[in-house]
Amino acid sequence: MSMQAWRGQLLRFDSEGRPAYDSDGLLVTRQDADGVRRVLDAGAHGAVAARHPGLPVEHLPGRLIAPGFIDMHVHYPQLDVIGSPADGLLPWLEHYTFPAEARFADPAHAAEVARFFFDELARNGVTTALAFATSHPASVDAFFTEAQRRGLRMIGGKVLQDRHSPDGVRDQTEQSLLDSEALIQRWHGQGRLGYAITPRFAPSCSDAQMHGAAELARRHPDTWIQSHVAENKDEVRWVRELYPQARSYLDVYQRFGLLRPRAVYAHCIHLDAADRLLMHETQTAAAVSPTSNLFLGSGFFDYAAAARHGMLHGLASDVGGGTSFSPFHTMLAAYYVGREGQSKPGLSLAPSQLWWQHTGGAARALGLGGVVGTLQPGSEADFVVLNPQATPLLARKTAQANSLEELLFALIVLGDDRVVEQVVGA
Ligand code: GUN
Ligand code: FE
């Protein structure tokens, strides 16, 4: 039988984001008819082991078994853009990002970067991501080909940008929509792969392209939509000039019909109460990208306001605006952003809440609640094995942890890829 079990410290979440922790836990998995590994049983070792007598167990003493991390917004072609300094978002796009993305006209380059990208996600314990490719359809094929080879649950899509974009990345309106449709047919729902319709952001898409994207999204209601909104004040001003009739930047997307469940907008910093309510009512999700927002000086996501309006949200690296693939670095940056109290009320996000935002909470925001991110029975068994003794200081600090929150916070503050010992994919 294709059952497998792991014994160690075990972290799970319930569907509301409450953590469950067993200092001596057991995770039992079984492959389903499609060859996908699912959680069969999980909890305290004594109780779970008694329900599965004779099952061989891999023992992981001193290790923490936890849900694989979920990155809600990342640009795989921006791997080489990390750490490019600029005077904010728009110069950064022009001077570094568009030239780097233009190289993806070459399928061999796309394939090489895709391999490096998925290696990097694995090193960092990221098992699912919602990713931008580039405007070149072959960059999407490279992404999904590699994800499929590795059996990952991955979502991605071809960038739409038919205006205000330089030669080399600008696409053609009609062709861009035909290409998107063909890519949906080719990849969406193949095993664990999903397609995301990807208008880059309002300034880069003509009205016709935005209408076409929304039409695709209506025809394929279980695809994702991904874009950017309200990241930077210069960008917000530009959108106001382009769409003077819109109530707000977010309202531009609403007018075209691009807000719905499984629509994910990166940043969501410069929003007002009406915007947040609209996000809530349409079940549109925010991909909070704190290392990117700090690096590009974009601003601070308002966690208190998001909670007040019941806005779906979760964490994202936004590489290459973001500075790290590491979920630990992203969670720590999210903590800094939450604490910031000059531009909005500051608060201290609980470590388990930060962790939830990067696992089960991100899954729920993506419309994948119950599928990944919690290690609940029936869900897909993508998980990480973490070593809380990975560095001398971590070993010293985690040895003094008196609670789950203290253990998780030590990992968030001091952890990185050195902590990630194993990644097990479903
Ligand atoms: N807005 C439009 N394109 C991008 C991008 O590539 N990165 C970020 N951070 N914001 C954007
Ligand atoms: Fe982005």
Question: Could you explain the architecture of this structure?
Answer:
Helix content is 38%, strand content 23%. Strands 5, 6, 7, 8, 9, 10, 11, 12 and 13 form a nine-stranded parallel sheet that branches. A six-stranded mixed sheet has the order 3-2-1-4-14-15. Helix 15 runs antiparallel to helix 16 (404-414). The protein is built from 16 helices and 15 strands. Helix 4 (137-150) links the parallel strand 6 and strand 7. It is α/β, with parallel strands linked by helices and 426 residues long. It starts with a strand and ends with a strand. The mean pLDDT is 98. The protein binds guanine and fe (iii) ion (FE). Guanine binds at residues 75, 89, 93, 97, 200-201, 228, 231, 292, 318, 321.
Work out the radius of gyration.
21 Å
Largest sheet: 9 strands, parallel
Total DSSP helices: 16
Helix content: 25-40%
Structural class by helix and strand composition: alpha/beta
Listed once per kind, the bound small molecules are: guanine, fe (iii) ion
Low-confidence stretches: none
Tell me the span between the first and last alpha carbons.
16 Å
Number of strands: 15
Strand content: 15-25%
Q: Indicate the overall shape.
A: globular
Please, what is the average pLDDT? Answer: 98
